[in-house]
């Protein structure tokens, strides 16, 4: 609100940061909608022009940021800015030690009780640095999605937050691209009255599966018994099959497709 009447508000924001810091550290740079893309370009341009040094991590090379995004061509100048002003360091040593820590973690918990929650907590803590976990919500395609915790490419959701409300297929795609591991708790048995939620769940699992996202879950039943309706029986058979495959060592060993 302080810069609403300014001709270039992002210049004022950049000046504000530059007056207080010469180095800015940004964890897990990620762009998931055109608004973020345009804001990032203006802000980075202002910061770099004022001599601010940016240190950031990302799960992808700058050229892969906002890949396949809407009006991505408008974000290309931001990518060039990053490449012009930053030294790129590849920190991939070939072994994802966080993934190795999860090798013995239980993948599917029935029922979704306190013991299951405690096991999911342990799984999350093996996957990330505990003191970096964040609560509350994330923003996907301009919409807030409630999370239990998220950090370091790992996100923990309630079934309700992903499948009970209005969710688009692009929401699931962004989640699958950004997070290599997803924890999903309290998956219910879905009847005919839950067909909308069941469809979203089917779409979610399809998307996670296609991107080789690792899934840890607590549920009211085994995969084959999660759907008690009739309209989506055929579709859910494939979902159950995929859930089973996602628990195999072969699937777990596949690299995440960001």
Structure overview:
The protein has 258 residues and is an alpha/beta fold. It folds into two domains: 9-85, no CATH class; 97-252, 3-Layer(aba) Sandwich (Rossmann fold). The chain is built from ten helices and eight strands. It has helices at 9-18, 34-49, 76-85, 97-101, 114-127, 159-163, 169-178, 195-210, 233-245, 249-252; strands spanning 23-26, 53-56, 108-109, 134-140, 143-151, 154-158, 181-187, 214-219. The strands form two sheets. A six-stranded mixed beta sheet has the order 3-8-7-6-5-4. A two-stranded parallel ribbon has the order 1-2. A hairpin with a 2-residue loop joins strand 5 (143-151) and strand 6. Helix 2 runs parallel beside helix 3. The relative contact order is 0.10.
List the helices and strands and how they pair.
Layout: H1 9-18, E1 23-26, H2 34-49, E2 53-56, H3 76-85, H4 97-101, E3 108-109, H5 114-127, E4 134-140, E5 143-151, E6 154-158, H6 159-163, H7 169-178, E7 181-187, H8 195-210, E8 214-219, H9 233-245, H10 249-252
Q: What is the CATH class name of the largest domain?
A: Alpha Beta
Separate helix tally: 10
Give the overall shape.
elongated
Average of pLDDT: 85
Unreliable segments of 5+ consecutive residues: 95-99
The portion of residues assigned to helices is: 25-40%
């Amino acid at each position: 609100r302080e810069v609403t009447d300014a001709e270039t508000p992002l210049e004022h924001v950049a000046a504000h940061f530059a007056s207080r810091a010469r180095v800015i550290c940004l964890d897990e740079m990620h762009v998931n909608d055109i608004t973020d893309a345009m804001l990032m370009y203006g802000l980075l341009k202002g910061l770099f022009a004022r001599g601010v040094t940016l240190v950031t991590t990302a799960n992808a090379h700058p050229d892969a940021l906002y890949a396949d995004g809407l009006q991505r061509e408008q974000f290309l100048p931001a990518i060039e800015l990053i490449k012009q002003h930053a030294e790129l360091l590849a920190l991939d040593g070939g072994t994802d030690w966080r993934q190795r820590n999860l090798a013995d973690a239980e993948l599917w918990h029935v029922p979704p009780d306190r013991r299951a929650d405690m096991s999911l907590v342990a799984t999350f803590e093996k996957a990330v640095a505990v003191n970096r976990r964040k609560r509350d919500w994330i923003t996907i395609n301009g919409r807030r999605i409630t999370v239990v915790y998220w950090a370091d490419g790992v996100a923990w959701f309630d079934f309700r937050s992903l499948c009970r409300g209005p969710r688009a297929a692009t929401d699931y795609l962004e989640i699958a691209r950004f997070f290599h591991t997803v924890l999903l708790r309290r998956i219910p048995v879905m009847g005919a009255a839950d067909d909308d939620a069941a469809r979203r769940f089917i779409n979610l699992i399809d998307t996670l599966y296609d991107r080789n996202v690792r899934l840890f879950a607590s549920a009211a039943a085994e995969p084959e018994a999660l759907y008690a309706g009739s309209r989506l029986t055929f579709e859910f058979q494939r979902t159950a099959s995929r859930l089973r495959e996602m628990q195999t060592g072969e699937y777990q060993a596949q690299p995440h497709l960001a």
